[in-house]
Design brief:
binds pyridoxal-5'-phosphate; 14 helices; Aspartate Aminotransferase, domain 2; four-stranded antiparallel beta sheet; seven-stranded mixed beta sheet; globular; Aspartate Aminotransferase, domain 1; alpha/beta
């Protein structure tokens, strides 16, 4: 029986072309700035996001942490959504290692922050207050089911932050999913942010890494922070080579993942006891929940036995993510297996 793994797009393996590129990669010591393959990937990333420079980082988590540490000082306050990956899923690194206060405002179901909430959360000048220096956004929004922030919204909220002297970091782990879904370049989505990070290890299928992009001056400082965090890599061209292939060949095909996610969502919506936990499926993430007639532990056990893997998100909430290693017929097969499980366990 084929295991259908819908836990995350991070489970994607490098393509044969990536493995060849890795085998043949020209390398050097990147801490000395001498790895031509890393330098090429960084130049491509800067170009794709419309920024002056970029830095190759081991993970999305380290990319966001590097961004926060570069933009802020200990004791500053940063504003972010209560569903933000930086807030929920990065081990509190911004607080633990960056010494910043994380001030959350609610994310709406589209991953947005209400500008009025953000404006209220920005601290005034007062000897009792920490200084607010950074706003973090997320596009696509993971917890909000792959929701997209539009260029118009991003411009508006970044304009507000900049008027108050804040910098903006955009966690764009899946920014190319947003770009493909909207039919705009990623640079349009990142244009108003001071920095943007994206993952090559998710839907783009490379084995390792993220890119942090911004001005030359910002990236120079971020390079020191990355070194401080232990993220200075040597012959990193071996993994950067796969990233180059990812940026050259894997972006446009994300549309297939989006079509498969919509197909999955439609099918799940037709299974009694399952309902979608988002209004629309915009990219490759489907959030769904179970009604009381489908007991959560029986559902998990049944899916495991049927070889379907989804992410349990606590309570009765689940996440399924489509990616390159899931075909349209895998979606249909997964739906058939989920339907079988739901019939067996329904109370
Ligand atoms: C996956 C993800 C990250 C972190 O990436 P890792 O490489 O897993 O550390 C950051 N932000 C968002 C929105 C993500 O989905």
């Amino acid at each position: 029986m084929k295991i259908i793994d819908l836990r995350s797009d991070t489970v994607t393996h490098p393509t044969p072309e990536m493995r060849r590129a890795m085998f043949e990669a020209e390398v050097g010591d990147d801490v000395y700035g001498e790895d031509p393959t890393v330098n090429k990937l960084e130049a491509m990333a800067a170009e794709k996001t419309g920024k002056e420079a970029a830095l190759f980082i081991t993970s999305g988590t380290m990319g966001n942490l590097t961004a926060v540490l570069t933009h802020t000082h200990h004791g500053n306050e940063i504003i972010l959504g209560d569903g933000a990956h930086i807030f929920l899923n990065e081990v509190g690194g911004a607080a633990a290692l960056g010494g910043v206060v994380m001030r959350t405002v609610p994310n709406d179901s589209h991953g947005r922050l209400d500008p009025a909430d953000v404006e209220r959360a920005i601290r005034g000048k007062n000897i009792h207050y920490p200084e607010t220096t950074l706003l973090c956004l997320e596009n696509t929004h993971n917890r909000c089911g792959g929701a997209i922030l539009t260029p118009q919204y991003t411009r508006e909220i970044c304009g507000l932050a900049h008027r108050h002297g804040l910098k903006v970091h955009l966690d764009g782990a899946r920014i190319f999913n947003a770009a493909v879904a909207l039919g705009v370049p990623a640079s349009t989505l990142a244009a108003d942010a001071d920095s943007v990070s994206f993952c090559i290890s998710k839907g783009l299928s490379a084995p390792v890494g993220s890119l942090l992009c911004g001005t030359k001056e910002f990236i120079e400082r971020a390079r020191r922070v990355r070194k401080m965090l232990g993220g200075g890599m040597r012959q990193a061209g071996i993994i950067a080579a796969a990233g180059i292939v990812a940026l050259e060949t894997m972006i446009d095909r994300l549309a297939e993942d989006h079509a498969n996610a919509k197909r999955l969502a439609a099918g799940l919506g037709n299974i009694k006891g399952i309902s979608l936990a988002q209004e629309t499926v915009e990219t490759n993430i489907v959030m769904f929940d179970l009604s009381a007639e489908l007991p959560v532990s029986d559902f998990i056990a049944g899916l495991t036995a049927q070889g379907v893997k989804v992410g349990a998100r606590g309570g009765n909430l689940f996440r399924a993510v489509t990616h390159r290693m899931i075909s349209t017929s895998d979606i249909d097969e997964a739906l058939a297996r989920i339907e079988t499980v739901s019939k067996v366990i329904r109370k």
